[in-house]
Every structure is written in structure tokens, then in C-alpha cells.
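Weekly structure sync, notes
Attendees: PL (lead), two postdocs, one rotation student
Agenda item 3: pending single-chain targets
PL asked that the sequence for the first pending target be pasted directly into the notes so everyone works from the same version. It is reproduced below exactly as submitted, 377 residues in total.
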Amino acid sequence: MLLYVYDYRLILASIVISMMAAFTGLALTRGLSGVSEGVRHMRIAMAAIALGGGIWTMHFVAMLAMRFEVAVYYRALPTVASVLIAILLAGLALILMHFGRRTGPRMVLSGTVLGLGIVIMHYTGLSAIEGCQPVHRPLGFAAAGGLAVAMGVLAIRVAYRRRRAVDILAATAVFGLSVAIVHFTAMYWTDFARTVAAAAEGPAIGNSHLALIVLVTAFVISGAFLMSGASFLSAFPGPQPAAAAGPPSDRPAAPADAEPPATPPAPGLRLPYEREGVTYFLPAAEVAAIRAEGHYTIAYTAEGRVFCPWSISEAERRLSEAGFFRVHRSYLVNTAKVSGFDRRKDNGICLFGDIPNLDHVPVSRSRVPGLRAHLGL
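Predicted structure, written out during the meeting:
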């Protein structure tokens, strides 16, 4: 069997790249319930490329960290196939989470698909090596596969638990580390045998060319990471002075820009919202619109946005008598707060005057007649 040593600087670089890719992919999927289906498809595709590309880049940076006694090359076909497998399975996992109800079994299925993407990419990429022969021990398949699935499920459950900033950061750590753990677990149970030098069956990629490809991929991931990080920080601002903005919030996809009511809420229908583990209430009449956010919702008021533990369906059921109307599968509007209605060719939009972060709300084509009736048009 061939002996090899590791360049630990490249190992560290591979883990950092995996973390950046995990954060980029998970950050891109935040808040998709409030965008159009076309934008949702585009952002899921971008997130899949980030996650799958990160898995692939981590693997091949770690392979470049190995110093063999012989020159090694990588066949082009399985190398390209490995990155496509990672991207496609990461995309399928995200589609399962963003198109359909997020039930427990669905999260397990999504995490399983994501984990299988890691381990299948690894062995497909490893099969590309030329100059030596990987010798796999059966226990390695079981260990790497089991870890990949378990950590994939854990990453999905953490990321989609409530979609808070802390959940996304925790899932980044879980997923980013899982890629590295699966890789090095599989490599621990893999030996390399010396082979007789022979021409590759197809186009081969040398270490220098592979390093260049990996460098460009890592550069793209780093750029996407920086842009996602800037967007992430702007959506989750730091604590504000207590006298000006109340306690900081850790709710998902919504800044802490609404204060708890200073006086007891008016009688009638009220909307619960949470901050720092405390549930407050505000009169439903003060809410302009409600947007779905996974199993929960974001309510828009004149003071800002607040996180509501109700689902969009429960909010519709409870608030229909208070003048709220479902204009889109992701939106309820308080018709008393609508300042204008713009009829489009196939759909429309509701306009709001001075509600922060809420310029307009999309209206589905099938909901236009009902909304017009509610607005007296």
C-alpha cells in the first residue's frame, strides 16, 4: 500500500470552504416564503450550487492536501459527475423543504438526501483518481454513509427549526463540519495501492489544473459568502438601546424593530408575538399584513415587524372576522390598512402607505375578485 502525508494547512482551508458554502446556501434560502415562485426557484438553484459546490470543493481541496509517493491525476468524467451529483441532491433536499409542508418525516427525508449527496459525491470523486488504486474497506461505506445521513438530518432540523439567526449559524457549523467528518471518516477506511502506469481512459486532470479549478470555485464561494453575510447581518441587526427600541430580538427573518405595547392592548382580537422567550399581544387592528415564514408568520405594523407563532392558516382562521383576507398563499392583508390596489393583467398588488418594510403585497389571480369585494370595488 502507498504511504501518504497531509498538508494540514490545506485541510484547514477545506473545512473553512465547507463552512462558507454551508452558510451561503442556508442564508440564501431564508425568507423564501415571501417571494414569488420564480424567485424562489432561482434562489434554491443558487443555494444548491453553493452547497453542492462547497461539498465538492472541500473534497478536492482535502485530496490536494494528500502527498502521495507517486504522481496522481483525476479523470475528467467522474470528477465532473461528482460535482453534479452534489448539486442535484442538495437541490432536491432544498426543494423538499420549500415546496410542501415541513413535517418531521419530510425533514428526515430531506436530510437523508442531503447526507447521501455528501457520501455519493465523495466516492464518485475518489473513483476519478489515476496513478494509484483506492482500496475501500466495507466498514468505511457504512461508517461514512451513516454519519452523512445522521448529520444531514441534524443540519436540516437545526436550520429549519425556526429559521432564526442562531439556527442558521448552528446549522452552518453542523453541515460544514459534517462534510469534513464524512470525508475523513471515509478516507480513514480507504487505502491506496500502487498501480502499473497506464494511459487514462479519458481526459485527465493534473494536480496543477485541479488546483486552479478548485481555486476559482473557492473564490466564487468566498464572494457569495461575503454577499450573503452582508445581507444576513442587515436582516439581523445588533441590539438597540433599550430606551429606543426595546430588547434585541432573535426571531427568524425579521429585525427587532417593534416595541412591546406600553399600555394594555385594546379589547377584541389580538395577535401574539414573541421576543426573547416572552409572548406579547397587540390588537389585530394594528397589523397591516401577515407573511408566512415556514410554520410561523411575520406580522407587519406601523412600528415594524414582529414574529408570530401562528401559522398562516391559523392566522387566516382567527382573523377573518377582523377584516383580514388571504390574498396569496403566503400573505394575509388587513383590508382596512390597504392604501391602494393596483390591478395587473393576471394578478394585482396591495399598496400600503407608511408601513415599514412593506411597500406592497402580491395578490394571486384567483384572489383578485374576493379582494375587490372586500375593498368595495
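Discussion points:
- The chain is about 50% helix and 20% strand.
- The radius of gyration is 25 Å.
Action: rotation student to compare against the earlier draft before next sync.
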